[in-house]
């Protein structure tokens, strides 16, 4: 019969293998796997381009991330550089974004389903935070927030709802974010809930938010603008 220690060791090995199997981005098995955007083959990520056809431009983009962007009605603009802009990011598990904030602008509550985010403030001040999941009390839906100044860094764990807000009414702010996926994805909470196509039933949302249906109808009638480019 197997001993308790050998069973525990087997369980630990299985857990490690399982964790690797469910990692959000496939790991590289060679130096690089430049995405072949024209391949008809469907895989998790992209098929590798022929290495003999790879050149430096596959790892480059003149993104002008040093230039300010025009913000939208919520007062922000996210310029994401992921595998769709740089094919060489395929399988490397990383992307980057510049985020511009107008005075009193915000990057509204959202999640990245496939990535942890680390944000660095380049200019201005930001009030940032994330909310924990529906775990047992006292940590259920706990807000962890901080005011960041130029040069400060903050981490948003994968999948958790988070936000950034520029509290300065006179000066814009700028941040750079690195994300642990070649394609982190973004779900802006208000847009997804009130701007889905087709709309979620107002009966469902009225009960979920404990408000009258006419309040839900008003919110669904708004134009939910995307701030990701």
CATH topology-level name of the largest domain = Jelly Rolls
Radius of gyration: 21 Å
Query: What is the number of domains?
Result: 2
What is the 3D form?
globular
**What is the CATH-assigned architecture of the largest domain?**
Sandwich
Binding site for oxalate: 107, 112, 117
Family: Belongs to the germin family.
Subcellular location: Cytoplasm; Secreted, Cell wall; Secreted, Extracellular space, Apoplast
Domain Cupin type-1: 63-217
Could you characterize what this model shows?
With 229 residues, the chain is an alpha+beta fold. It has two domains: 25-185, Jelly Rolls, CATH 2.60.120.10; 189-228, no CATH class. It contains four helices and ten strands. It has helices at 4-21, 189-194, 202-209, 213-220; strands spanning 76-81, 95-101, 106-111, 117-123, 126-131, 143-148, 153-156, 161-165, 173-179, 187-188. The strands form two sheets. The protein has a five-stranded antiparallel β-sheet, with no helix packed on it. Helix 3 packs across helix 4 (213-220). It is globular. It starts with a helix and ends in a 9-residue tail after the last helix.
